[in-house]
Write a structure and sequence with these properties.
Blueprint (H helix, E strand, L loop, with lengths): L1 H10 L14 H134 L2 H22 L1
Main location: membrane
Keywords: ATP synthesis, CF(0), Chloroplast, Coiled coil, Hydrogen ion transport, Ion transport, Membrane, Plastid, Thylakoid, Transmembrane, Transmembrane helix, Transport
Subcellular location: Membrane; Plastid, Chloroplast thylakoid membrane
Length: 184
């Protein structure tokens, strides 16, 4: 290993009169080399770095601009959606109110029609009862009349004989004759 280091050290002692060689003195060569490299990089790399930074700046600005446009459109769409929502809510409230009033109106109409129908049914029932009562009364009257007539005929037949029967007929004919003369 000592041989390798010695060979580099011996290279560093070459005469520098017009020749090119390695300077092995680290303290003397590194700051100079670094300053030269940095100077070259700044001089030649300034345009490239500036272009890269400008491109990056433009992309960032474009991204911000696009984001602002998207945000503006999103805010606009949100406002439209909120307006539509308010409109739909108002329409829903109106439908709800109209629906409730329509339900109440239909309910009242149904109650009224039902009460009218019940009243008509009550009237029909009363008329039917009166008709049936009248019919029953008439049937009872007819039976009573028939029974009374049969009883009277039975009594007359049992009490009357032919002679009394002829006298009653003659008396009735006489009464009818007298009535006929009065009316003439």
């Amino acid at each position: 290993m000592k041989n390798v280091t010695d060979s580099f050290v011996s290279l560093g002692h070459w005469p520098s009169a017009g020749s090119f060689g390695f300077n092995t003195d680290i303290l003397a060569t590194n700051p100079i080399n670094l300053s030269v490299v940095i100077g070259v990089l700044i001089f030649f790399g300034k345009g490239v770095l500036s272009d890269l930074l400008d491109n990056r700046k433009q992309r960032i600005l474009n991204t911000i601009r696009n984001s602002e446009e998207l945000r503006g459109r999103a805010v606009e769409q949100l406002e439209k959606a909120q307006a539509r929502l308010r409109k739909v809510e108002m329409e829903a409230d109106q439908f709800r109110v109209n629906g409730y009033s329509e339900i109440e109106r239909e309910k009242l109409n149904l109650i009224n029609s039902t009460s009218k129908t019940l009243e008509q049914l009550e009237n029909y029932k009363n008329e039917t009862i009166q008709f049936e009562q009248q019919r029953a009364i008439n049937q009872v009257r007819q039976r009573i009349f028939q029974q009374a007539l049969q009883g009277a005929l039975g009594t007359l037949n049992s009490c009357l004989n032919n002679e009394l029967h002829l006298r009653t007929i003659n008396a009735n004919i006489g009464m009818f004759g007298a009535m006929k003369e009065i009316t003439d």
